[in-house]
Specification:
The complex is a heterodimer of chains A (65) and B (259). Chain A is mainly beta and 65 residues long. Chain A is built from 1 helix and 5 strands; from the N terminus they run ββαβββ. Chain B is of the alpha/beta class and 259 residues long. Chain B has 9 helices and 8 strands. Chain B starts with 12 loop residues before the first strand and ends in a 23-residue tail after the last helix. The chains are: A mainly beta (65), B alpha/beta (259).
Chain lengths: 65, 259
């Protein structure tokens, strides 16, 4: 199905958030996730279903002031 | 020593991690500064080969051993700021958050109405909020009522390097809330600005661009640390009151008559 990863369209097979992160190449990376504008804590990822057209944000530590 | 949400900091200098010429120079600047806090942010991570830049950055910052203060930079709404704070708490494992809700794209002036609203939500959820605010006294009152135990008024717009633009306003804020830990955040361009903030009784200074964009960031970081220390020592020493007229410092009694 097509989802939007960080604003960009992506085609994925996974239907759960944890599996999608693996499929999208995040591996064991330290990331935080939000789905359709709502924070999804890491422990909730296996129980979080993705729907076609959903907006997934995957954030990581970055420089800041 | 005044604490920040119960934590005593080794240094009263808080330093940002952005805009350095290289990660190595950033680490060098932190070592030179002895900064007590490092601010960090969250941004999109692409994933896949070559798309995990944030991981290397985090490894470097974690290795510095500096206390982390995540920010909500770039957020323009309460919802964005609150969601970013949630993500930052999980990511960095700290309830501390530098709460920024930007109201104006050009000046990066905080939207103080949204700031108060977001602060109420986050403090109720157990966050330790460091609100990036103006020197407005009423906003400060509202932030304290919202549960903030630290205030971070700006010195001047972010990245401007102008120093403390509104000295009377910042003096009034300091005098109005003498027991509240306060950090001058943004606008510092020179060590003299940082020293001035500390001489006025502010408890710490948070800066980034002035160090990162200096020709020699590590040397400037050291200069800022010295200025913060000097300014704090001066405040503790109870400075003299300035006066308009001259007053001879050398005693007149016993002066030779040589006319």
């Amino acid at each position: 199905m097509k989802i939007f990863l960080n604003g960009e369209p992506r085609e994925i097979r996974a239907t759960r958030l944890d599996a999608a992160l693996t499929e999208l190449g995040y591996g064991d990376a330290r990331v935080a996730t939000a789905l359709d504008g709502a924070f999804v804590p890491a422990p909730a990822r296996p129980d979080t279903a993705l729907a076609p057209g959903c907006a997934l944000e995957v954030l990581a530590p970055m420089q800041g002031g | 020593m005044r604490t920040f949400y119960g934590e005593t900091l080794e240094s009263r200098l808080m330093l940002g991690t952005a805009q350095y010429p290289s990660p190595a120079i950033m680490a060098e600047a932190f070592r030179a500064s002895g900064a007590g806090v490092a601010t960090v942010s969250l941004r999109r991570e692409a994933g896949g080969p070559g798309g995990l830049a944030g991981q290397d950055f985090w490894a470097l910052v974690e290795g510095m051993g500096t206390r982390i203060l995540p920010n909500t930079a770039g957020c323009h709404t309460v919802k964005e700021a609150v969601t970013t704070a949630h993500m930052a708490r999980e990511m960095f494992g700290t309830p501390w958050v530098k709460l920024e809700v930007i109201g104006h794209t050009d000046t990066l002036q905080p939207d103080v109405f949204a700031l108060v609203e977001a602060a109420e939500i986050l403090t109720a959820e157990g966050f330790r909020v460091f609100p990036y605010t103006t020197e407005d006294l009423v906003v400060a009152e509202r932030l304290l009522a919202a549960g903030c135990e630290v205030l971070m008024p700006w010195g001047a717009p972010i990245g401007s390097g102008l120093g403390l633009s509104n000295l009377p306003g910042l003096r009034a804020l300091r005098a109005q809330f003498p027991e509240v830990p306060m950090v001058i955040d943004a606008g510092i361009g020179l060590p003299s600005h940082a020293a001035q903030a500390m001489e006025m009784g502010y408890d710490a200074v948070l800066l980034n661009t002035a160090v990162a964009k200096a020709g020699d960031p590590a040397a400037m970081a050291r200069a800022m640390a010295l200025a913060v220390e000097a300014g704090r020592a001066a405040f503790a020493a109870d400075p003299m009151e300035p006066r308009d007229m001259a007053a001879p410092s050398t005693p007149l009694i016993g002066r030779a008559f040589l006319a």
